[in-house]
Amino acid sequence: MKADAQTEAAVKDVLDRFAENYAKRDLEGVMALFAPDSDVVMYGSGTDEKRVGPAEIRAQVERDWSQSEATSMTYGWASVSAAGSAAWVATDVTFKAKVGGQELTLEGRLTNVLENRGGKWLMVQGHFSLPAAAQAEGESFPE
């Protein structure tokens, strides 16, 4: 069900704070947006990027930063839905990184599931992906 305006704004605020803290390389700020649960999950675009639990998510963020000089992300189209204490969001994201002196721009997709705990929205699941480059528009499978 479509989230009400207050929930939608709160969920988008979490995404904005994630982008801001990630760009500033504020590890504690990033981690504060995730639930501290052992089963919190984050998928990245790399084949080895399945992270379960805060320690693994922390290690992934640190790895990202160790392999880049700067990062930023901006969101485009977004859909926010909610039921009870759960909310889920899907959004287009432009991820920019400076790696080895080269500027990279990745047009990706981000989904998150959040849970409201004591009035605070926390991410319990996240997934960043890149569209399959070998898949032509209008086709269901890559060539």
Fold and architecture overview:
It is globular and about 40 Å long. It contains three helices and six strands. The chain has one domain: Nuclear Transport Factor 2, Chain: A (Roll). The longest helix has 20 residues, at 5-24. The protein has helices spanning 5-24, 27-31, 54-66, and strands spanning 41-43, 50-52, 70-83, 86-99, 102-117, 120-129. Strand 3 (70-83) and strand 4 form a beta hairpin. By secondary structure, the protein is an alpha+beta fold. The model has no long low-confidence stretch (mean pLDDT 96).
Keywords:
143 residues; alpha+beta; Nuclear Transport Factor 2, Chain: A; six-stranded mixed β-sheet; 6 strands; 27% helix; globular
CATH domain fold name: Nuclear Transport Factor 2, Chain: A
Shape: globular
Low-confidence stretches: none
Report the total helices: 3
Helical content stands at: 25-40%
Distance between the termini: 35 Å
Which CATH architecture?
Roll
Give the tally of β-strands. Answer: 6
Question: What structural class should be given to the helix and strand makeup?
Answer: alpha+beta
| CATH class bucket | Alpha Beta
Number of individual domains: 1
Strand content: 35-45%
Q: Mean pLDDT, rounded to whole units? A: 96
Strand order of the largest sheet: 2-1-6-5-4-3
Biggest sheet architecture: 6 strands, mixed
Oligomer: single chain
Order of helices and strands: HHEEHEEEE
Put the structure in a nutshell:
By secondary structure, this protein is α+β, with helices and mostly antiparallel strands. 27% of the residues lie in helices and 42% in strands. It has a single domain, classed as Nuclear Transport Factor 2, Chain: A (Roll), CATH 3.10.450.50.
